[in-house]
Amino acid sequence: MKYLYQQKQKSNSLISFNHSQNQIKAVSKQVFRLRKLQNLNLGQNSIQYLPSELGLLGPAVEHSDARTKLFAGSLQQVGVQGNYLVRPSKAVAGRGTKAILQYLREVLDVELFIEELNL
Question: Which InterPro entries does the annotation name (predicted)?
Answer without folding.
Answer: Leu-rich_rpt, LRR_dom_sf
